[in-house]
Design goal:
Layout: E1 14-16, E2 21-26, E3 34-39, E4 45-49, E5 53-57, E6 65-66, E7 77-83, E8 89-95, E9 98-104, E10 112-118, E11 122-127, E12 133-140, E13 143-149, E14 171-179, E15 184-189, E16 193-197, E17 205-208, E18 217-220, E19 226-229, E20 233-236, E21 244-246, E22 254-264, E23 267-276, E24 280-284, E25 292-296, E26 302-306, E27 314-319, E28 324-329, E29 335-339, E30 347-348, E31 359-366, E32 370-377, E33 383-392, E34 395-402, E35 409-417, E36 420-428
Antiparallel strand pairs: 1-2, 2-28, 3-4, 4-5, 5-6, 7-8, 8-9, 9-10, 11-12, 12-13, 14-15, 15-16, 16-17, 18-19, 19-20, 20-21, 22-23, 23-24, 24-25, 26-27, 27-28, 29-34, 30-31, 31-34, 32-33, 32-35, 35-36
């Protein structure tokens, strides 16, 4: 699972999935095996792979910058990455029986080795804030390799993190999830168990996954629901006190599970995606009760999928041939992102067409993360539709309104965001 290399080229394609996710193939510029992806902001993502490969985007994948080398040997096999923001990231890898962690604070221009362990294997790094982070690796000398940092990954300390190894158990790369808050930790093993801490590693509980032996991938909704994948898919609804096998699609080992939340009015929707060792991405809109095949890659096998900032509308999945798939998640309610370029200011454009019958569109710009409301009023000033009330990241959006159930006349639409309020008139003619 950790050392398969397949060199293939891929072409750019675009499809629209049943889930409301738009999947786009992106040009990575490499053909090596990519092993881990981390979301560091609405438009920012970091990817690592074999041959010391590190890629970064700051424009939602329109361009990927190769920031390999610069302190990372091309012989190191990188298997996990965590991006803090556009400038700061940490990546872990191995060479032979030795493991390394590298850190950049200048967008990948330079990488500095901040951790080394002989006969070890660091599986994952997770920063719970810009300063504080946790690192998990395979056992060394009879104890799990667990570490914390309080200075953005510059130094690592294992004090107070003693967890003995049971038999010859080991872990899996990328099989770590930390909910923040309240800093609950899960990490997977090959020993029919998941290790869980409710207090950021001070104490550990063994959670049985039997009959599933391996837990290659883990994710949680930061409440009580969580998923884990081995050769089958498991779910818990009580923070892991009980894990049960649930139905899933596809075959092969799970490589990654991730999620995105949607709040629409008073309703909360947990949407989940996973990949396993084939060329498909699978999706559930109902917390794993049912699944669909959401996307099929043109070539290669998926290794990882992630959106560790679950409020982002972008999800990335990487493959063993340099392939990158980006999912743009539907916000819901007929709201779509039409450009991820960060606008200069809030704007609300005139609806089009206008006059209209019966469907029209509203375009608006959000320059910074904000609670955005979009309402429709009748000629008497009464609110008749609440199209949007959600925190949105910076982007240009388009909303669609179907006025089929309303009569001809003058209507108004209003955008509110922070200190910006604007109302425009439109005419419905039937």
């Amino acid at each position: 699972m950790k050392k398969i290399i397949l060199l293939l080229f891929f072409s750019r394609i675009l499809i629209y999935a049943q889930s409301g996710t738009t999947w786009t193939e992106q040009n990575s510029g490499v053909t090596v095996q990519l092993t881990s992806v981390s979301v560091a902001g609405f438009n920012i993502a970091w990817i690592c792979g074999y041959n010391g490969t590190v890629l970064k985007t700051t424009n939602a994948g329109t361009n990927w910058i190769n920031v390999s080398g610069n302190g990372i040997s091309s012989t190191v096999l990188l298997i996990n990455i965590f991006g803090i923001d556009a400038n700061n990231a940490l990546t872990a890898g191995y060479l032979g029986s030795n493991t390394f962690v590298y850190r950049t604070t200048n967008s990948g221009i330079n990488w500095n080795q901040v951790f080394f362990q002989a006969n070890g294997f660091i599986n994952a790094v997770w920063m719970v804030s810009s300063n504080n982070g946790f690192m998990q690796g395979d056992p060394v000398g009879g104890r799990w390799s667990l570490w914390k940092t309080a200075n953005s990954g510059l130094n690592w300390d294992s004090t107070g993190l003693y967890l003995p190894q049971a038999g010859s158990e080991a872990g899996w790369n990328n099989s770590l999830y930390i909910s923040s808050p309240p800093n609950r930790i899960w990490f997977g093993t090959n020993n029919s168990r998941i290790y869980y801490s409710s207090n950021y590693g001070n104490n550990w509980i063994i959670q049985s996954t039997s009959p599933e032996v391996n837990s290659y991938a883990i994710t949680s909704d930061n409440f009580s629901n969580a998923f884990a994948g081995g050769v089958s898919l498991l779910k818990t609804t009580n923070s892991g006190n009980n894990w049960a096998v649930i139905s899933s699609m596809g075959t092969g080992n799970f490589g990654g599970i991730t999620w995105n939340n949607l709040i629409s009015g008073n309703n909360f929707f947990l949407r989940t995606w996973y990949v396993r060792s084939d060329n498909r991405i699978f999706f559930s809109s109902n917390e794993g009760n049912t699944w669909i095949s959401d996307y099929t890659a043109p070539s290669g096998t998926y290794r990882h999928i992630n959106n560790n900032r679950a409020s982002s509308f972008y999800i990335w999945a990487v493959r063993n041939n340099g392939g990158i798939s980006r999912g743009l998640v539907d916000i819901g309610g007929g709201i779509n992102i039409i450009s991820n370029e960060i606008p200069v200011s809030f704007t609300l454009s005139q609806n089009y067409p206008n006059p209209f019958n019966p469907v029209t569109k509203f375009r608006f710009s959000v320059p910074k993360k904000s609670l955005v409301k979009l309402m429709v009023y009748n000629s008497l000033g009464n609110e008749i539709e609440n199209l949007l009330s959600e925190v949105l990241p910076p982007a240009v959006y388009e909303a669609t309104w179907d006025a089929s159930k309303y009569s001809s006349g003058v209507y108004f639409y209003r955008l509110e965001a922070k200190d910006f309020i604007q109302t425009k008139k439109m005419i419905l003619i039937k």
